[in-house]
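Pipeline run #58 for the internal structure catalog. This entry was flagged by the ingest filter as a single-chain record with no existing model, so it goes straight to prediction. Upstream metadata was stripped on purpose; only the residue string is passed forward. Reviewer on rotation: M.T. Logging verbosity set to normal.
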Amino acid sequence: MPQLQAAQVPVTPFQQNCALIWDAETGRGTVIDPGGDVPRILAALDRAGFTVERILLTHGHLDHAGGAAELKRVLEARQGGPVPIEGPDRRDALLLEGLAEQGARFGIEGMEAVTPDRWLEEGGTIAIAGQDFAILHCPGHTPGHLVFVAADLGFAVVGDVLFRGSVGRTDFPYGDSAALITSIQDKLLPLGDGIRFLCGHGPGSSFGEERRSNPFLNGRA
């Protein structure tokens, strides 16, 4: 990624990959999916040394969004200006409203409900560290899950839609396995085998590698 740098900060007992993406030249960037453990995220931001322009959410699960409200408060106090929370698609509103309850079910303290400053929709773009990323609605794991893709950079942030060797869970009342696979097959894989991605858990991969070897995509699962 020209001029862009990225780091992953595993947070919560679910070891969710909170992503930091920034431009080393401008010293500005984005935090994606701060699910919790906000002091750990802040320590990583101190090491990276960039100004946070926005907090971006792929979807409304607690391990991706539970620390967003707290991180916003701290960053706005530190930086002396607004740090908007943007995304996901508004179809995840009920999940974001119930973050504290989600946390209580798993015995995780500090999860806070959050209302984004701006909902995002497919067809638009979002600036991450000064680069435009296309917004794709990829439901199945949650109704309002979004993926962010910079095709010209060969890079995507896919949240819990696609993993190395696996795909997102759909065993929720609102889950839809057919919609998830359709999202991957129809929206992500056609973008090209060379696109590499960061995902919500575990190591990243590329669309090409997953098209070839992922058992959930090639009929071997």
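catalog note: The chain has seven helices and 13 strands.
catalog note: The radius of gyration is 16 Å.
status: ready for reviewer M.T.
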